Amino acid sequence: KKKGFIFDLDGVIVDTAKYHYLAWKKLANELGFEFTEEQNEMFKGVSRKRCLEILLDIGGIEATQKEFDTWMIEKNEDYLEYIEKMDASEILPDVPKVLEYLKAKKVPIALGSASKNAKPILEKVGLLPYFDNIVDGNSVSKAKPDPEVFLIAADKLGVMPKDCFVFEDAVAGIQAANNAEMTSIGIGDSDILAEADYNFKDFTEIDLDFIKKLLQLK
Ligand code: G6P
Ligand code: MG
């Protein structure tokens, strides 16, 4: 049966969480409060709008619609300054090894991300050519754990959801994959990502035999 692979972006392919953090922290500080790296964990896999809502909750700030919109733009402009400087050195270890293998086997590959900056980031690090389809924050309306992003990706790849494998680093992302009835592969802390079908600390732990085994599943 035809199989498909879907990759989350932030935290799976590149470590952009640190840039999101710096941009959110700058905004928080400007608004007069602290924002810690620990709190930033809650932002993983979460849309920009929802992140700002949580941030303002942390700071106890009630924003007007106009302020809210301004801060959304400001945060993204700061984030884009970091993205601008990204290159292939920021690809997480051994990610290209797996992409290369899938390409060689002619397995379709999609990106499934909440980010509206997904395409420029893939372009910057030089991985865009590996992806047959990009489903990102510009094309989905329901956030993970809703399965929408992955179901659209499967549809675009022309693969049945149950024959798709999803790499994710966020709890909401694993839940989205499970809700789509796909096979979920957690990248990160296996205690946090306990709901995943498989767990790996990072791609250096993924053996190509494992990918081969997945491709051979009924
Ligand atoms: C990913 C990240 C989140 C981020 C979201 C939106 O899911 O893990 O931390 O908030 O994308 O990113 P964007 O680039 O559209 O602000
Ligand atoms: Mg992620």
The tally of beta strands, per DSSP, is 6
What is the element string, with H for helices and E for strands?
A: EHHHHHEHEHEHEEH
The rounded distance between the terminal residues' Cα atoms is 7 Å
- Shape descriptor reads globular
Q: What small molecules does this complex bind? A: 6-O-phosphono-alpha-D-glucopyranose, magnesium ion
Spatial strand arrangement across the major sheet: 3-2-1-4-5-6
Helicity, as a percent range: 40-55%
Task: Give the overall pLDDT as a whole number.
Answer: 97
Helix and strand composition category: alpha/beta
Organism: Maribacter luteus
Cofactor: Mg(2+)
Catalytic activity: beta-D-glucose 1-phosphate = beta-D-glucose 6-phosphate
Binding site for substrate: 8-10, 24, 75, 113-117, 144
Describe this structure in words.
The chain is of the alpha/beta class and 218 residues long. 44% of the residues lie in helices and 11% in strands. The chain has a 6-stranded parallel beta sheet with strand order 3-2-1-4-5-6. The chain is globular, with a radius of gyration of 17 Å. Residues 10-11, 20, 43-48, 51, 76, 113-117, 137 line the site of 6-O-phosphono-alpha-D-glucopyranose (G6P).
